[in-house]
Model the fold of this input.
Amino acid sequence: MENMIPLWLKQRAFLTPNRLAIETESRALTFQELDESARALALTLATYGITSDMKVALLQDNTVEMITSYHAISYLGAIAVPLNTRLSARELAWQVSDCEAALLLYDNAHQEKVNSIVLERSSFQVCNINTLDQLVVGEEHHYLKAEMRSDAPHTIIYTSGTTGHPKGVLLTYANHWGSAIGSVLNLGCTLEDKWLAVVPLFHVSGLSIIMRSVIYGMPLRLHRHFDAKAVNEAIIHHKVTMVSVVTAMLTKMVEELGDQRYPETFRCMLLGGGPVPEPLLKVCLDKNIPVYQTYGLSETASQIVTLSPEHMITKTGSAGKPLFSAQVKIVDEHGDRVAANQAGEIVVKGPNVTSGYYKREEATQQAIKNQWLHTGDMGYLDEEGFLFVLDRRKDLIVSGGENIYPAEIESVLLSHPEVEEAGVVGMKDEKWGRVPVAFVKLKNKAKITETDLQMFCRDALAKYKVPTRFYFMDSLPRNASGKLLRRELVKRLPSDFQ
Amino acid sequence: MENMIPLWLKQRAFLTPNRLAIETESRALTFQELDESARALALTLATYGITSDMKVALLQDNTVEMITSYHAISYLGAIAVPLNTRLSARELAWQVSDCEAALLLYDNAHQEKVNSIVLERSSFQVCNINTLDQLVVGEEHHYLKAEMRSDAPHTIIYTSGTTGHPKGVLLTYANHWGSAIGSVLNLGCTLEDKWLAVVPLFHVSGLSIIMRSVIYGMPLRLHRHFDAKAVNEAIIHHKVTMVSVVTAMLTKMVEELGDQRYPETFRCMLLGGGPVPEPLLKVCLDKNIPVYQTYGLSETASQIVTLSPEHMITKTGSAGKPLFSAQVKIVDEHGDRVAANQAGEIVVKGPNVTSGYYKREEATQQAIKNQWLHTGDMGYLDEEGFLFVLDRRKDLIVSGGENIYPAEIESVLLSHPEVEEAGVVGMKDEKWGRVPVAFVKLKNKAKITETDLQMFCRDALAKYKVPTRFYFMDSLPRNASGKLLRRELVKRLPSDFQ
Done:
């Protein structure tokens, strides 16, 4: 028989109605208030015809409304599809269409982009959450779920792959539950905890904080945009005990902090999204900042491997050990487990691991074998079982916490009528970690400039994906079977930027 | 596909090998040491032919060996059947035989009883864990599991029912997991936690502490027997932060405590096993003891409803609200939900709730309908959803935290050749809460005394089940259809003892 679970927000509002659920600079909501808002919004969404298993795309900033949207969608048994607000209208239109969203729920900040999206595609309804009529909390309604199947899909999160279009990662209630529980068994929880969400709520890192908040009954402090000073003040003056950050954010926070210290009650700086420079860790150590380095993917509903601060020195460079119910192994190209300290592909398993990609049967079968997810990332386990990540997925460029796949940019470049070949790699950048740069072979007699290509990319891609430089070449390095050798391209970069 | 989970102790020993797992007055073991002992014992049990799905009955005191036994059995994929050490040899023989145990693993303290059990039945092997040859930790062995199906049975715990023989409650890994997770989401957890196990490890209350210890990575302090002074010292001097107790224990602890206070770091007195007298709660309030009253059953793998200390006064008499993933409802005799403040049967649901009784298809179907367990206990929910338990299962006698079912004692009495009718009820007792007393109608011309019947019961029953008094009657009160009216019997008791 299916495992039915009470709807999380409903249950939380029943158990601890008066606990603080969300605080922003200007507002504070209890779980009961959040629940009332979510139910009201759900009833409104129902008037748009939204019902079980339909998809609702979200294009919103980090706001109370965004959190309410997630919960309202759950109340209808529908599936949330959070969209990266930094994507171009064309990219967004593609995702909304690919997931067959019935509705795009957006906020004032994205009106203009939505207009462009609708120009691209219009097979869905749109609704501005800020201009909805005053919602009325009606009688408890047959539209609203009280329970969910634990294996029902909760979210589809798009992630770029090594080839072509992004894929929608299906995350079930059980996946989010597994993530929240794995985290609490590692980090603990107390009534004093308050988790700051300043990472985007459309990313799994932000979404997972919403989940923990409602599952633990823990207040979430919400910042709309990242501002190092505001984050430091939240920790020092607003009793924030835990924060999720990426390296670029932590760097700025530490700079801004200066001679100040975080209070002792601050207990977790959860640091994800790519490699961490050793000097930064050393500064954190000096300032007694409890950094938990993590490794995770959209496919694992956030962290799956985490390093405790006690190992910051002895295991520098490691992402740590798996969460309690999760497992990690390193395999060779035949899928066989390799010995300690041998590099190979990182393969993971656990209740937080996705069961597949939406409508991508083949990609799912390639990635998930016998419940083990093949991440495409390279790494090794030392003799004690600590994971060291060597390379994120083949040629992945991590830029300020965002993942950029060269193949996606290359395919845009190749769609330009004057471009014959294109290769994209990451170039070192002081601010963002890495930024994409392009190597291009033009067609005979083509007469276009770097600026032309940049403009062309801007139409199709999120700004952070647009190559910052273009190198024109007569031919691109390829192996015998014609495969592009991106590593050879990297060598053409000035040595300081490789 | 089945949900596979890493074996808990193996995973825990991998993740945090050097954390304290168990401490007693004289010993301390890390999780790695506990794991080594458990694997060694598992390999030894394998030489007895123990393998997946076989049952191993445990007759042991609260010792490190008892905890090791549980984990060793898991390592083989076998099922633990903890036996109540207070039962008579006849009762024990029946349970060992009913569960088809392949092995009875006991300790020195129970050698004599085991001799008697073997006289009763001998369809199983016996093994004294204290006289096992020095165990050798071998190479990692194909006998030892690394993963388990989450729906695999972990334990069979016998519980008496309203009729006839006890029934074996099947508890899966998922049930124990659900219980541990429900508890952590309610009580939180920190690296400073240490849980004292002084309740019996053969009860679900003790077993659940073992589970929490390995799942949370939290030290368990183990006391062999209950001694109020020792428990208070453990709290005051040995950094115990949480204790599971029953009312009779708490009463003695508070007495023994005198003018002393528990340190502020002591954060949870988990109080289960029946009704709590208000004066006791008041004393706890005065002494600032954080009492969490709970309601739970073997069938729910320990607590399923818990009252936080903040509601000790406002909700006196309530057992609280359900754990996060659990649900409670009150139904009438047709199974329909009743309104707030209306009494009815307590019906519960959640991941910690058993899927049934071992080899008792009919009893399972009667008790569990559509995933809801009908507890047989009576109670109501107030308008805020707080549970108030009115009566434990029909005529249940709770005596010092042990459940006693009149039907079981009556059936023993009725097996006496001179007894024609028998009825058993609970009589108030200052020390134990209640104790069983019997009303008996003898056959014509029977010439037996109270002492004869007491001796007869002692052969068949655990001491705590033997009626402390026998009342001889000419006839027992019955309703029109001949059903014994135990409530009428209660009225025959002296009014102070009703």
